Amino acid sequence: MAPPGVLRYAINSLKPELTCVQLRCHIKTGVAANRQGIHFVTDNLVTIGVFAKPKDGEANKAVIDIISQSLSWPRSDLQIIKGLKSQYKTVALMGITGVSNKEEYVAKLRNRLGRSSKSRLIPNQK
C-alpha cells in the first residue's frame, strides 16, 4: 500500500461525494518576508515558509492565509485539524460540493499548489 499523499480526500460515510480534502504541510517559521509562501510540493508534503514566529497562533494564521491565497479558497473553509503546535500540520479544505472525479480534483489542487510555489513542483514518482 502506498503512503498517504500530500493531498488526501475524505468522504462522508453518509454521502458518497467528496466533502473534504486534507493537505499535509511542513512549516518553516521565521523565513524572510520575501521568501514567505509555498516552497515545495512533493508527493508527501507541501513545504510552506512563513515570516511569523510560532507565537500566539500567528504562524498558524499565516499558513491559512498562504493556502487560501494559493488555492483561491475561502479562509472560512480552511482548518488546521492536526499539528496546531507542530511544524507538521494537516489542513482540511472543506466546502467541496459537486465533485464527481475525486482523483482528478485532487490532481488539479496539487497542480495549483505547484504553480504557486516559489521553487518548483516535484513530480509524482511511481
From TrEMBL:
<dbReference type="InterPro" id="IPR003746">
    <property type="entry name" value="DUF167"/>
</dbReference>
<dbReference type="InterPro" id="IPR036591">
    <property type="entry name" value="YggU-like_sf"/>
</dbReference>
<dbReference type="Pfam" id="PF02594">
    <property type="entry name" value="DUF167"/>
</dbReference>
<comment type="similarity">
    <text>Belongs to the UPF0235 family.</text>
</comment>
<protein>
    <submittedName>
        <fullName>Putative duf167 domain protein</fullName>
    </submittedName>
</protein>
<dbReference type="GO" id="GO:0005737">
    <property type="term" value="C:cytoplasm"/>
</dbReference>
